[in-house]
Structure formats: C-alpha cells, structure tokens
C-alpha cells in the first residue's frame, strides 16, 4: 500500500475541513483528486506531507503511520511535492540548477555540498524536463511554465516513491501545458516511476496514466475508483449538481455543459 486514510477527519480553527475520508492507494496506481474550490484537496495533500495531523482517524503514508513513527523530514524525503505555494518559498537568487540540486536534500535552498553524482543527476533531470537551456538562469526570472518544470525536476532528485502535483499547470499557456503533460506522462511510463497524485480543476488534463480518480465534495469523498467510471456523465452530473457531458479524445476526457438544461450556477 502506498497510502491509506482510514476514517480521517480534520478540524482547523474550529471548522471541519475533512470528514470521514477513506482512501487507499496501491502501487502502480496514479490518482487524480478532483473537487471544487474549498472541497479539501490541499488539506488532504497537507495531511499526506505531515504538515497537518488528522483530528480523527489514521493516516499511513509509505508504511509510516502518523503518531507511531517520527515523520516530518524522513517522510518528506520520499515525497516529491510540486505546488504554486512551493514556488513562492524558493530563495531569491538561486538559479534553476541550484533549485534542482536542493531536491536531493529535501531542503529549500542549498546548504550542503552536492557530490558529483548528485550534480550529474540534476543535469540529467534538467535535460529530461527540457530545462537545461536555462539551468544557470535565476529561478525568479523564469516564466511560470519554466518554473514548474524546474520544480518537477527538483521533486524527482530524491527518487521519491510518491509524487504530488498540486495544479502544476496553473498559469501555463496551451503549448507549455501540453509539454508539461508530456513530461508527466514520460515520468509515469518509467518502469520505476513514483506513484503520482494529481490535483487539477481541468478535467481535460487527466492523462490516461491517471487510472484512478477521487471525487471530493465539501470535505467528503463523493466517490472514488476507476477514472473512466468517475468521469461518466451521470456521476459528474450528480457531483457538480449540473448536467454535464464528458467525451473522450485521444484517451483524454473533455467536459462540457449541457447548455440548454444548465441550471443557474
Ligand atoms: N486553517 C484553516 N482554518 C479554517 N479553515 C481552513 C483552514 N485551512 C483551510 N480551510 C478551509 O478548508 C476548506 C478546504 O480548503 P482547501 O485549501 O483544502 O481547498 P481546495 O480543495 O484545495 O480548494 P482550491 O481548489 O481552491 O485550491 C476551505 O473552505 C478553506 O477555507
Ligand atoms: Mg487547493
């Protein structure tokens, strides 16, 4: 089991953010987390990273059960995390190469001397993600799409068992987004690829490698299972409480509104 949430509830500042979440992720599965704004997606990711502790229930990630084992750094070294909140934390003045190198130490900023092996690995990942040409450029000056690629390379430095991508295509133009999706697909097709969890608002970004989907609604699991079943018309119509239609093109879903019948949003 890669991770298991058993009856997990989370209360923050007197408010229940997550309630009775049950979720199991097995090896060779890649999951999409889908839910409206405020449904609790980021809260779940914060639980997986041990930034939050469950108010009720059990969380086990990569064999480590919260409360039983010391987590924090040990856990985070095995989890690659890419999010726009991470982008803001990168130290001003670090170049793309240094940002990627820091991934080997699960640190923000480079405090240790990287070995030649680590440097070679960083160069390999920069190349794989198409960022070698701006390796020496100051991270702050990179475009949004370039930054996201660098963060993915950084996340892969420690050979994570779990790779979490929280809205990685935010702010990307069409071409940059498709290129990034290609890179994600390539990572997923590696024989020793990490298990991936992908959070998005855009259904059409769901690549065929994401074979499982969790639909999260108001802090609760609305449904979870095979992506094809979760993205069926009736399922999503109930989920969004609006008539919608999904059609598939090149293995990717496209979500549309049933215009005439669409209720007042
Ligand atoms: N510390 C906190 N105190 C009170 N409420 C919180 C706290 N953190 C999050 N929330 C609330 O919990 C809910 C879930 O937040 P979360 O950030 O997980 O949503 P999300 O699904 O990631 O949404 P989005 O798609 O907008 O990123 C929101 O209503 C948010 O306001
Ligand atoms: Mg969020």
Summed up:
With 265 residues, the protein is of the alpha/beta class.
End-to-end Cα distance, whole Å, is: 39 Å
Low-confidence stretches: none
Number of helices: 9
Q: What small molecules are bound in this structure? A: adenosine-5'-triphosphate, magnesium ion
Basic shape: globular
User: Helix content range of the residues, please?
Assistant: 25-40%
CATH homologous superfamily title of the largest domain: P-loop containing nucleotide triphosphate hydrolases
CATH class of the largest domain: Alpha Beta
What sequence of helices (H) and strands (E) makes up the elements? Answer: EEEHEEHEHHHHEHEEEHHEE
- Overall structural domain count: 2
Describe this structure in words.
- The protein is α/β, with parallel strands linked by helices.
- The protein is 30% helix and 27% strand.
- It has 2 domains: 1-78 and 162-180 and 195-265, 3-Layer(aba) Sandwich (Rossmann fold), CATH 3.40.50.300; 87-159, no CATH class.
- Strands 6-7-8-3-9-10 form a 6-stranded mixed β-sheet, with helices on both faces. The chain has a 4-stranded antiparallel β-sheet with strand order 2-1-4-5, with helices on one face. The chain has a two-stranded antiparallel ribbon with strand order 11-12.
- A hairpin with a 2-residue loop joins strand 4 (56-61) and strand 5.
- The relative contact order is 0.15.
- Bound molecules: adenosine-5'-triphosphate and magnesium ion.
